[in-house]
Request: fold
Amino acid sequence: MSISRIEPGKRMSQAVAYGNLVFLAGQVASDPSADVAGQTRQILGEIDRLLAAAGTDKTQILSTTIYLADIATFGEMNSVWDAWVPQGHLPARATVEAKLATPDYKVEIQVVAAR
Reply:
């Protein structure tokens, strides 16, 4: 089986596909000035785009890890997540509070999907 690297950069690839699995790098908002809901929307849109580039979609997500700079924003993030994730295709998920790469980032999301 070959490894396919999607959007490789200087330090990492945005996604790596191997066999029937796709691993996305942790995604952050392109506009970090947005609030938690806005950042979450941006990130989920980017996840949709990267999964499509890898030949899959959000119905195939197996697991998700969500990092919040402030766990008090859990409900705000979940309101966007709940509208995006397709019922009947809910992945395994963990949500944790973490110090992110810069203070502007409020949310980071990583997924593993099948294809």
